Amino acid sequence: MKFWFIKYRLSLLIALLGITIGSLTLFPRLEIDPDLDNYVPVEMDNRVNMNHMDSIFGGSEMILVMLKDEDVVKRSTLKRLKNLSEELGNLEGIDRSVSPFDAQTISTEDGFIIMEPFMENIPGDQAGYNELKSEILGNRMASRFFSTDDFELVSLMLMKDSDYSDDLLITAIDSVLLEHPGTEEVLLGGLPYVRYSITGNIKKDLKVLLPVALLLMIFMLFASFREWKGVFMPFSVVIMSMILSFGVMALLGWNISLITVLMPIMLIAIANDYGIHMIARYQELAQSENPPSMLEICRQIYTDLKRPIIIAGLTTIGGILGLLTHTMIPAAQIGVLTAIGIGFSLILSIWFLPAMLSYFQPVGKVRVKKIRRVMSADKWLRKISHMVTNHPKQVIITSVLVGVLGITGIFFIKVDTNIEGYFLGNSKVSRSIKLINEKLGGSQFISILFSGEVLSPEILQRMEYYEKVLSEDPAVGTVSSPVTLVKELSKGFYNVDEEGYNQIPSTLNEVYQFIEIFTMGGNEEAVEQFVDYNYENSRLLVSLKDGSNMEGKRLLKKMQELVKDDPDVSFIAGSSLTKIQLADMVVSGQIKSLMLAMVVVFVLLALIFRSGRAGFISVLPLSVAILVLFGLMGFFGITLDIATALISSIMIGVGIDYTIHYLWRFKEELAKGVGHKEATLKTLTTTGRGIIINALSVIIGFMVLTLSNFAPLRFFGALVVISITTCLICALVLIPSIVVLVKPRFLETK
Amino acid sequence: MQNSVKTIIFIISLLLFHVLLSAQEDPRQIYDRATGQMLSGNMEIMMELDIKDKKGRVKEKGFEVLVASFGDVEKTKMSWQKPEAAKGTTVIFTELPDETGVIEVYTPSNGKIRKLKATPENMAMVGSEAQMTGMTSRDPDDLMFTHLPSQEIEGKPCHRIEVKDKNSTDQARGELLVEMDTYRIVQITVFDKNGTKTSFVTLSDFQPVEGMETKVQPMRIITEDYENKKQTEMRVLKVASRTDLTEDDFLLPLRAGDVAESSSTFRNAD
Known about the structure:
Shape of chain A: elongated
Radius of gyration of chain B: 19 Å
Distance between the termini of chain B: 27 Å
Low-confidence stretches of chain B: 15-24, 125-137, 255-270
Low-confidence stretches of chain A: none
Largest interface: A-B, 36 and 36 residues
Helix content of chain A: 55-70%
Oligomer: heterodimer
Strand content of chain A: 5-15%
Radius of gyration of chain A: 32 Å
Mean pLDDT of chain A: 85
Number of strands of chain B: 13
Largest sheet of chain A: 4 strands, antiparallel
Strand order of the largest sheet of chain A: 2-5-1-6
Number of strands of chain A: 10
Helix content of chain B: 10-25%
Strand order of the largest sheet of chain B: 6-5-4-3-2-1-13-12-11-10-9-8-7
Structural class of chain A: alpha+beta
Number of helices of chain A: 26
């Protein structure tokens, strides 16, 4: 029963549509997770340490609410800030709210401790505002909330409960902000807000740009095939594969990450290919001298293309599964899901598509000819054929030179996993990131955890030293520790001219008693930012003005060096370090997965064509294409990050498909007894046409993404275009040249 | 900590009520009878507190508290017994009639005595707002009592009394459960203006007060602070009537070399 899919076509169509609809019903379970911390395995040391730190001090992530105006030191602005601080602090998901109003002024006067809240009374005239500004400059606990160079910005910090959803919290914050209108511009910042914005940007851009991309692809497919069957069928293969992959994702309880967005792109680029070759072959048969019936055409295209499609699909799956070597969780997940999607698209292409096609009538001969005239691809393909058959050496040498150029570019590649860099232009989020980094000392932190007698003067003195050294580093925004608090408290117990004023006390008991008196006054939260409940752990908190990986890595090294001999330092941890670990994982994962993919492709093609040379010929153009991709990334300053690192997987999938289709058809043509030149021409004008249609539809579709304001999507678009173009050139120019020059025996019919 | 201090002060203020014992069973009288059997006036309490935060971490503290009135002046002295590093730290609250009182703080590690004016803001800062309210406006005449349907606690029938401040407009209220046979307050629930439960106190293990056996004292008081997600368990180790307390008992210890300026200011304020 070779053609069972024709005999039982209705049952087959219903079964495959049933699987698709079943997968679709699982979609409500899908959730977006933009949290980088979740991309690294739970056992990674920084993640373990961060969890430990959070269990001691509560959520260490914060959301900054900033009010921006010409001058924020005025009654209306400060009143608004105070109201916001009170109301936002009561929101579910906020551990505590900290604002300038929580700062204390501690001093002595006639033997009385003056311990009063800073800004208890907001002045009402310009003279009062000027005086308040001077006081702010003199109070470290208050000044950190202001842009003290121009007083155009004032902020409050909301410490977030790490288990609470970003989306729910930001929505609740927005509601509170609406209830407190004012003349000042309100900006939000901090990692939870950045994550929320990433999710929003992805959703927003994909809602607009992805449909436009798909429409353009449809247009390209229609322009190429000039019949709706040619559009609808390859497209339905892609859509059904995507639905199944996302359904499996929901079933396995995996979340949509920043890089999962690559999965549909990979499927569009790869799964589309199989359907296009089927349709191209169907049109080729329909325009023959004595065109067969539709049923015969369906049987024929199945017979002709089943093997190359299965081989191409399995090789691609093997290559894509190379992503399993990634330590980064979503990368491994995307490997599995894309492999499943490609597997399903194989089934759909070789059975579902001919079964469906069998219900229609073949396109008329005249129309097909018109199509070919419109496309005029033949003319170009003949030129390419002429070039590769007459100048194969030149083509190969040029390719090698381009590859070498690519290697040069690789040295310029920067690895950066800082999600703050994802926002372009003058969007609110990019402005707030800039303001926080420039004016408020940054919102990304690295902490040093101390354990033991953390209130002992010895530890506090060491902390003070680290604070001093780190404060001088250009990448550091602010350094905070219990030392600042303890020294402030000393001002309440000693007169200005006394030994001990603004100093770390000389005994543990004295520090302890300062803190005890201070917390008795309801200031526990101010203490708990730095010292835990039972005074067993304390931390030194360093904020980064520059969140780039390079600076983060340098600073981490400096901090490690600084505390290496300190017996009371437990560890250094922070969300900034997750990025650094992630960057290392991206690089090592990239190298491992690419190498594995190459080995898999080499072995599979060597086995299929029973020749090691076949493996080599297939891997070589792919290598050139990958070198070009990374080279261009280096030259154009596109950073290697968690998303762009995986673009090479698309390239492997697409590149291998093009290669196999070309080689298979070429072998078939040689088997007909024609020479290499003629076989090249025939292969380029038949299979080459399918390759061009696939490549152009993907390229034109994804060019739209380069219009995105969101850097990752813009880069995805650019890199998809680069990847597919390179694969196209390799398939139509480099591989034919190698084949013509080398005349490999594995392509000869025995 | 602020809330544990509030709890202590709340209990102390309950003990300080001047009450009229009466056999009549209207809610005011039940309240008066219940608070009346507790110790009022000069006393000494030794207590230990286990304060559990929302993460379940427990902090242990110990205090010795002296309470006394000298004419119109009311004094409360709290001395830290635990933890060891804070031992000896002392805070004295002095309430003066018709003028701002003084909060004195003594830290034994440096022998320093510092003072804060007992302005409402400072009292709020040291968690003593409850005490201010208790001292100044908790005259039962300022409170409004309602008898709610009775309730059983551990098989014992209890009066349920709703208490509101007559002068307050925020609709905050408290509910007291008073055992019908013993007139002991066994539960206190406090609600905010929205009717949300903000704290829940259970009082148990009532013991006769040393030196005044007609009075009783709950030796175990557990406070659930729903707003701050904290639980405080207070164990009273000793409670005694101290009619012998003098103003000298409320002087802060001075060591040789202590700052004269501070001590003189303290004495002037006295």
